[in-house]
TrEMBL record:
InterPro entries: AB_hydrolase_fold, TEII, Thioesterase
Record-given protein name: Surfactin synthase thioesterase subunit
Thioesterase domain sequence ranges: 10-233
Pfam families assigned: Thioesterase
Family: Belongs to the thioesterase family.
One Gene Ontology term from the biological process aspect of the record: lipid biosynthetic process
């Protein structure tokens, strides 16, 4: 494991379904020097575009554990948007199980809480028109791309795998919650979150630490449309989390890159 040096806290960032690490490419320049952002790469996109998409939880977590292992010997946090938040909470538990360490903070953005999810197992086999209608309803992809046959043939396998990953999720109510501060962020115009406020509030059960719930006046993909607001909420919440740890946490806030 990597030794503690340089930045105060490493933040592992995870994208939404169909998204890549590239959605976080502008974030490092917009956060204070005590944060080091590490965007995790999922199969079927970005630098792993040649890797077959993974639609099962165990192999995906095994892959991500390899990626984060060099960093977990020092303070780390996890942030994810939509599917990324679901992967993030499972990654936190996997790290705790395998290495005996936990994040200092978790951020869950635009995601129904694990305990509120219902299984949907048809995404790998449903008709293409039905699947594209679902993507269109989320508002994350313009119609010109949805109507581009060549583009859709490239991205549909990854999207189907991501949707199945979320749809096959099983919440483990028996495991011990995390013990770090947790921030949940929701969009006031996000159809599922806005219509069912408990879906977001139920994130409070995922950690025994302090819980914050914040709203952004936007739709599901506010991570793109309201990027700076999301970053501000993340940084402020993380700073409060570290300050609550006393002198050890405050010293992390003062660190600069080596």
């Amino acid at each position: 494991m990597a030794s503690e040096s340089g930045h105060g806290v490493t933040v592992f960032c995870l994208p939404y379904a169909g998204g890549s690490a590239a959605i976080y490419r502008d974030w490092p320049a917009r956060v204070p020097s005590w944060l080091k952002l590490v965007a995790l790469h999922l199969p079927g996109r970005g630098i792993r575009h040649a890797v077959r998409p993974i639609h099962r939880w165990p192999p995906l977590l095994d892959l991500l554990i390899e990626d984060v292992q060099p960093y977990v010997g020092r303070p780390f946090a996890i942030f994810g948007h939509s599917m990324g938040a679901l992967i993030g909470i499972e990654l936190a538990h996997a790290i705790r199980e395998r290495f005996g360490v936990s994040p200092v903070w978790v951020g869950a953005s635009a995601c129904k809480a694990p305990s509120r999810r219902e299984q949907q197992l048809h995404w790998l086999t449903c008709g293409e028109s039905h699947f594209i209608d679902e993507i269109r309803s989320l508002g994350g992809m313009p119609d010109e791309l949805l109507g581009n046959r060549e583009f859709m043939e490239l991205v549909l396998p990854t999207l189907r795998a991501d949707f199945h990953l979320c749809g096959s999720y099983e919440h483990d109510a028996s495991r011990r919650p995390l013990d770090c501060p947790l921030l949940a962020i929701g969009g006031t115009e996000d159809r599922e979150i806005a219509a069912h406020p408990p879906h977001l509030a139920a994130w409070s059960a995922e950690s025994a630490g302090p819980f914050e719930l914040k709203k952004i006046h936007a739709g599901h993909f506010f991570i793109n449309t309201h990027r700076d607001e999301v970053i501000g909420l993340m940084v402020d919440s993380l700073a409060r989390a570290l300050s609550s740890r006393g002198p050890s946490g405050e010293s992390l806030l003062k660190r600069s890159p080596a």
